[in-house]
Amino acid sequence: MADLIGADLATRTLPLSGFHGGSGAASLSAAAPATRLSLRAKPDAVAALSLALGLSLPTRPKTSASSHGRHALWLGPDEWLVIDENGADMMGAVASSGTLHSATDISHRNTAVIVKGRGAEVAINGGCPQDLSLGIFPVGACSRTVLGKAEVVLFRTAEDTFRVECWRSFAPYVSGLLNEAAEDAGN
Amino acid sequence: MLLIYCPYCEEERSELEFRQAGDAHIARPTNITELTDEEFEAFFFLRDNVKGLTYERWRHLNGCGRFFNAARDTVSDKFVTTYKAGLPKPDISTLRPATEATVETYEATESNAK
Protein backbone atom coordinates (compact mmCIF):
# COMPACT_ATOMS: atom_id res chain seq x y z
CA MET A 1 0.00 0.00 0.00
CA ALA A 2 2.90 2.29 0.66
CA ASP A 3 3.47 2.22 -3.07
CA LEU A 4 0.31 4.29 -3.58
CA ILE A 5 1.92 7.40 -2.15
CA GLY A 6 2.92 9.53 -5.06
CA ALA A 7 1.40 7.12 -7.58
CA ASP A 8 -0.56 8.54 -10.51
CA LEU A 9 -4.05 7.56 -9.39
CA ALA A 10 -5.97 9.54 -11.99
CA THR A 11 -4.94 7.67 -15.09
CA ARG A 12 -7.14 8.60 -18.03
CA THR A 13 -8.69 5.74 -19.97
CA LEU A 14 -8.85 6.66 -23.63
CA PRO A 15 -11.86 5.53 -25.63
CA LEU A 16 -10.86 2.81 -28.12
CA SER A 17 -7.51 2.41 -26.36
CA GLY A 18 -5.58 -0.31 -28.18
CA PHE A 19 -8.38 -0.83 -30.70
CA HIS A 20 -7.48 -2.62 -33.94
CA GLY A 21 -9.83 -4.17 -36.43
CA GLY A 22 -11.07 -4.30 -39.97
CA SER A 23 -9.98 -6.58 -42.77
CA GLY A 24 -7.31 -6.89 -45.42
CA ALA A 25 -9.22 -4.40 -47.54
CA ALA A 26 -9.74 -1.78 -44.84
CA SER A 27 -7.79 -1.78 -41.60
CA LEU A 28 -9.03 0.11 -38.57
CA SER A 29 -6.98 1.61 -35.78
CA ALA A 30 -7.51 4.15 -33.03
CA ALA A 31 -5.98 7.53 -33.76
CA ALA A 32 -3.35 8.86 -31.39
CA PRO A 33 -4.60 11.38 -28.79
CA ALA A 34 -4.82 14.90 -30.18
CA THR A 35 -5.99 18.31 -29.07
CA ARG A 36 -9.15 19.54 -30.75
CA LEU A 37 -10.91 22.85 -30.97
CA SER A 38 -14.46 23.67 -31.93
CA LEU A 39 -14.00 27.13 -33.40
CA ARG A 40 -16.72 29.55 -34.46
CA ALA A 41 -16.16 33.02 -35.83
CA LYS A 42 -17.56 35.62 -38.21
CA PRO A 43 -15.76 36.22 -41.53
CA ASP A 44 -13.96 39.36 -40.27
CA ALA A 45 -12.14 37.32 -37.60
CA VAL A 46 -10.87 34.61 -39.94
CA ALA A 47 -7.64 36.37 -40.90
CA ALA A 48 -6.51 36.99 -37.31
CA LEU A 49 -7.46 33.47 -36.21
CA SER A 50 -5.57 31.99 -39.18
CA LEU A 51 -2.50 33.95 -38.13
CA ALA A 52 -2.82 32.77 -34.52
CA LEU A 53 -3.21 29.12 -35.54
CA GLY A 54 -0.48 29.19 -38.15
CA LEU A 55 -2.66 27.99 -41.01
CA SER A 56 -5.24 29.49 -43.32
CA LEU A 57 -8.76 28.64 -42.11
CA PRO A 58 -10.66 27.28 -45.13
CA THR A 59 -13.76 29.20 -46.23
CA ARG A 60 -14.98 26.91 -49.00
CA PRO A 61 -17.36 24.01 -48.20
CA LYS A 62 -15.80 20.57 -47.67
CA THR A 63 -12.21 21.86 -47.67
CA SER A 64 -9.45 21.76 -45.07
CA ALA A 65 -6.04 23.25 -44.40
CA SER A 66 -3.09 21.39 -42.87
CA SER A 67 0.24 22.52 -41.51
CA HIS A 68 2.74 20.51 -39.43
CA GLY A 69 0.25 18.03 -37.96
CA ARG A 70 -2.43 20.67 -37.41
CA HIS A 71 -5.62 20.44 -39.46
CA ALA A 72 -8.47 22.96 -39.80
CA LEU A 73 -11.65 21.37 -41.15
CA TRP A 74 -14.53 23.44 -42.59
CA LEU A 75 -17.75 22.27 -40.92
CA GLY A 76 -20.05 25.21 -41.66
CA PRO A 77 -19.91 28.83 -42.92
CA ASP A 78 -18.70 30.01 -39.48
CA GLU A 79 -17.56 26.77 -37.87
CA TRP A 80 -14.31 24.77 -37.93
CA LEU A 81 -12.92 21.69 -36.24
CA VAL A 82 -9.20 22.20 -35.58
CA ILE A 83 -7.15 19.10 -34.74
CA ASP A 84 -3.53 19.21 -33.56
CA GLU A 85 -1.80 15.82 -33.58
CA ASN A 86 1.17 17.19 -31.62
CA GLY A 87 -0.98 18.10 -28.60
CA ALA A 88 -0.25 21.83 -28.83
CA ASP A 89 -2.18 24.33 -26.70
CA MET A 90 -4.53 25.80 -29.31
CA MET A 91 -6.87 27.45 -26.77
CA GLY A 92 -3.99 29.70 -25.76
CA ALA A 93 -3.16 30.40 -29.40
CA VAL A 94 -6.64 31.55 -30.41
CA ALA A 95 -7.10 33.47 -27.16
CA SER A 96 -4.13 35.62 -28.18
CA SER A 97 -5.68 36.42 -31.58
CA GLY A 98 -7.44 39.51 -30.22
CA THR A 99 -10.62 38.99 -32.24
CA LEU A 100 -14.19 38.05 -31.33
CA HIS A 101 -14.64 34.29 -31.61
CA SER A 102 -15.91 31.25 -29.75
CA ALA A 103 -13.48 28.41 -29.05
CA THR A 104 -14.21 25.27 -27.06
CA ASP A 105 -11.63 22.64 -26.18
CA ILE A 106 -13.15 19.32 -27.30
CA SER A 107 -9.94 17.26 -27.14
CA HIS A 108 -11.57 14.64 -24.95
CA ARG A 109 -15.10 14.84 -26.34
CA ASN A 110 -13.93 13.41 -29.66
CA THR A 111 -11.92 10.39 -30.60
CA ALA A 112 -11.03 9.12 -34.05
CA VAL A 113 -10.76 5.90 -36.01
CA ILE A 114 -8.28 5.71 -38.89
CA VAL A 115 -9.67 3.70 -41.81
CA LYS A 116 -6.97 2.69 -44.26
CA GLY A 117 -6.87 0.46 -47.30
CA ARG A 118 -8.29 -0.01 -50.80
CA GLY A 119 -11.70 -0.77 -49.25
CA ALA A 120 -11.77 2.32 -46.99
CA GLU A 121 -14.47 4.06 -49.05
CA VAL A 122 -16.66 0.96 -49.07
CA ALA A 123 -16.21 0.44 -45.33
CA ILE A 124 -17.35 4.01 -44.52
CA ASN A 125 -20.16 3.84 -47.07
CA GLY A 126 -21.46 0.90 -45.05
CA GLY A 127 -23.04 3.53 -42.80
CA CYS A 128 -22.52 6.87 -44.55
CA PRO A 129 -24.59 8.08 -47.54
CA GLN A 130 -21.98 10.47 -48.98
CA ASP A 131 -20.22 9.98 -52.31
CA LEU A 132 -16.61 9.29 -51.29
CA SER A 133 -15.14 8.74 -54.76
CA LEU A 134 -11.88 10.63 -55.32
CA GLY A 135 -13.39 13.09 -57.79
CA ILE A 136 -16.12 14.22 -55.38
CA PHE A 137 -14.28 13.75 -52.08
CA PRO A 138 -10.58 14.35 -52.87
CA VAL A 139 -7.62 14.14 -50.50
CA GLY A 140 -8.03 16.95 -47.96
CA ALA A 141 -11.82 17.01 -48.22
CA CYS A 142 -13.77 16.90 -44.97
CA SER A 143 -17.40 16.87 -43.97
CA ARG A 144 -19.64 16.41 -40.99
CA THR A 145 -22.11 13.64 -41.80
CA VAL A 146 -23.76 10.53 -40.36
CA LEU A 147 -22.45 7.00 -39.89
CA GLY A 148 -25.45 4.86 -39.12
CA LYS A 149 -27.07 6.57 -36.14
CA ALA A 150 -23.99 8.52 -35.06
CA GLU A 151 -22.72 11.90 -36.19
CA VAL A 152 -19.14 11.79 -37.47
CA VAL A 153 -16.66 14.11 -39.19
CA LEU A 154 -14.88 12.54 -42.16
CA PHE A 155 -11.44 13.76 -43.21
CA ARG A 156 -9.62 12.20 -46.14
CA THR A 157 -5.90 12.31 -45.32
CA ALA A 158 -4.72 10.18 -48.26
CA GLU A 159 -6.26 8.45 -51.27
CA ASP A 160 -6.83 5.30 -49.23
CA THR A 161 -7.00 6.78 -45.71
CA PHE A 162 -9.80 8.47 -43.80
CA ARG A 163 -9.90 9.90 -40.32
CA VAL A 164 -13.35 9.33 -38.80
CA GLU A 165 -13.91 11.68 -35.85
CA CYS A 166 -16.74 10.79 -33.51
CA TRP A 167 -17.88 11.60 -29.99
CA ARG A 168 -16.26 9.35 -27.38
CA SER A 169 -19.57 7.92 -26.21
CA PHE A 170 -20.32 6.86 -29.80
CA ALA A 171 -16.87 5.27 -30.24
CA PRO A 172 -17.92 1.65 -29.48
CA TYR A 173 -20.84 1.95 -31.92
CA VAL A 174 -18.81 3.67 -34.67
CA SER A 175 -15.86 1.27 -34.39
CA GLY A 176 -18.19 -1.74 -34.30
CA LEU A 177 -20.14 -0.60 -37.35
CA LEU A 178 -16.93 0.18 -39.27
CA ASN A 179 -15.55 -3.21 -38.31
CA GLU A 180 -18.60 -4.99 -39.75
CA ALA A 181 -18.48 -2.90 -42.93
CA ALA A 182 -14.70 -3.38 -43.32
CA GLU A 183 -15.17 -7.13 -43.33
CA ASP A 184 -17.72 -6.77 -46.12
CA ALA A 185 -15.47 -4.34 -48.02
CA GLY A 186 -13.08 -7.10 -49.04
CA ASN A 187 -15.74 -8.99 -50.97
CA MET B 1 -32.91 8.08 -51.13
CA LEU B 2 -33.95 11.72 -51.42
CA LEU B 3 -31.14 14.15 -52.23
CA ILE B 4 -31.48 17.71 -50.92
CA TYR B 5 -29.36 20.60 -52.18
CA CYS B 6 -27.83 22.52 -49.27
CA PRO B 7 -27.26 26.17 -50.30
CA TYR B 8 -24.41 26.50 -47.78
CA CYS B 9 -22.55 23.25 -48.61
CA GLU B 10 -23.33 23.91 -52.29
CA GLU B 11 -24.04 20.29 -53.11
CA GLU B 12 -26.70 17.63 -52.86
CA ARG B 13 -26.68 15.53 -49.70
CA SER B 14 -28.73 12.63 -48.45
CA GLU B 15 -31.98 13.34 -46.64
CA LEU B 16 -30.50 11.49 -43.63
CA GLU B 17 -28.42 14.58 -42.83
CA PHE B 18 -31.44 16.94 -42.74
CA ARG B 19 -34.34 17.73 -40.43
CA GLN B 20 -37.53 19.54 -41.33
CA ALA B 21 -38.12 22.60 -39.14
CA GLY B 22 -41.66 23.83 -39.83
CA ASP B 23 -43.09 26.51 -42.09
CA ALA B 24 -40.88 29.26 -43.49
CA HIS B 25 -41.54 33.00 -43.83
CA ILE B 26 -43.58 33.35 -40.63
CA ALA B 27 -43.03 36.91 -39.51
CA ARG B 28 -43.00 37.45 -35.76
CA PRO B 29 -45.44 40.27 -34.90
CA THR B 30 -43.75 43.48 -33.76
CA ASN B 31 -46.63 44.32 -31.39
CA ILE B 32 -46.77 40.95 -29.68
CA THR B 33 -47.91 42.35 -26.31
CA GLU B 34 -51.01 43.87 -27.91
CA LEU B 35 -52.22 40.69 -29.63
CA THR B 36 -55.46 39.05 -28.62
CA ASP B 37 -55.37 35.37 -27.72
CA GLU B 38 -56.92 34.50 -31.07
CA GLU B 39 -54.35 36.50 -33.00
CA PHE B 40 -51.52 34.92 -31.02
CA GLU B 41 -52.96 31.46 -31.65
CA ALA B 42 -53.07 32.17 -35.37
CA PHE B 43 -49.45 33.32 -35.39
CA PHE B 44 -48.06 30.68 -33.05
CA PHE B 45 -50.02 27.49 -33.69
CA LEU B 46 -52.10 27.61 -36.86
CA ARG B 47 -50.50 26.44 -40.11
CA ASP B 48 -52.00 25.94 -43.55
CA ASN B 49 -50.88 22.34 -44.20
CA VAL B 50 -51.27 22.90 -47.92
CA LYS B 51 -51.49 20.13 -50.45
CA GLY B 52 -49.00 21.01 -53.16
CA LEU B 53 -46.33 23.67 -53.11
CA THR B 54 -45.23 24.76 -49.63
CA TYR B 55 -42.37 26.78 -48.16
CA GLU B 56 -40.53 25.14 -45.29
CA ARG B 57 -37.50 25.65 -43.10
CA TRP B 58 -35.00 22.81 -43.17
CA ARG B 59 -31.83 22.30 -41.19
CA HIS B 60 -28.68 20.57 -42.40
CA LEU B 61 -28.33 19.11 -38.92
CA ASN B 62 -25.59 16.52 -39.53
CA GLY B 63 -23.75 18.69 -42.03
CA CYS B 64 -23.06 22.40 -41.85
CA GLY B 65 -25.78 22.83 -39.20
CA ARG B 66 -27.37 25.79 -40.99
CA PHE B 67 -31.09 26.49 -41.36
CA PHE B 68 -32.27 27.24 -44.88
CA ASN B 69 -35.57 27.47 -46.74
CA ALA B 70 -37.03 25.09 -49.27
CA ALA B 71 -39.96 25.16 -51.68
CA ARG B 72 -41.34 21.63 -51.68
CA ASP B 73 -44.30 19.85 -53.22
CA THR B 74 -46.09 17.93 -50.48
CA VAL B 75 -47.74 15.56 -52.95
CA SER B 76 -44.66 14.41 -54.86
CA ASP B 77 -42.10 15.24 -52.09
CA LYS B 78 -40.10 16.98 -54.82
CA PHE B 79 -37.89 19.88 -53.71
CA VAL B 80 -38.53 22.63 -56.25
CA THR B 81 -35.70 24.78 -54.92
CA THR B 82 -33.73 25.55 -51.75
CA TYR B 83 -32.34 28.96 -50.78
CA LYS B 84 -30.47 30.56 -47.92
CA ALA B 85 -32.30 31.74 -44.81
CA GLY B 86 -33.27 35.38 -44.93
CA LEU B 87 -33.82 35.50 -48.69
CA PRO B 88 -37.32 36.36 -49.98
CA LYS B 89 -39.65 33.75 -51.43
CA PRO B 90 -38.46 32.87 -54.93
CA ASP B 91 -40.79 33.38 -57.89
CA ILE B 92 -42.10 29.87 -58.37
CA SER B 93 -43.54 30.54 -61.85
CA THR B 94 -39.98 30.83 -63.13
CA LEU B 95 -38.89 27.65 -61.36
CA ARG B 96 -41.68 25.24 -62.24
CA PRO B 97 -41.60 23.96 -65.79
CA ALA B 98 -45.04 24.24 -67.38
CA THR B 99 -44.75 20.78 -68.88
CA GLU B 100 -44.17 19.10 -65.55
CA ALA B 101 -45.99 15.80 -65.43
CA THR B 102 -48.77 15.59 -62.88
CA VAL B 103 -48.20 13.16 -60.06
CA GLU B 104 -50.36 10.05 -60.14
CA THR B 105 -52.20 10.06 -56.86
CA TYR B 106 -54.67 7.43 -55.74
CA GLU B 107 -57.52 9.95 -56.06
CA ALA B 108 -56.60 10.72 -59.67
CA THR B 109 -56.31 7.16 -60.89
CA GLU B 110 -58.62 5.04 -58.76
CA SER B 111 -61.26 7.04 -56.98
CA ASN B 112 -62.27 10.50 -55.92
CA ALA B 113 -61.92 9.38 -52.30
CA LYS B 114 -65.17 10.93 -51.15
UniProtKB/TrEMBL annotation, chain A:
Short name of any one Pfam family annotated for the protein: SoxG
Domain of life: Bacteria
InterPro entries: SoxG, SoxG_het, TrmE/GcvT-like
SUPFAM superfamilies tied to this protein: Folate-binding domain (SSF103025)
NCBIfam families: soxG
Protein name per its UniProtKB record: Sarcosine oxidase subunit gamma
Organism of provenance: Rhizobium herbae
TrEMBL record, chain B:
Highest taxon, organism lineage: Bacteria
Cross-referenced InterPro entries: SoxD, SoxD_sf
NCBIfam families, per database record: soxD
Name of the featured protein: Sarcosine oxidase subunit delta
Taxon lineage: Bacteria, Pseudomonadati, Pseudomonadota, Alphaproteobacteria, Hyphomicrobiales
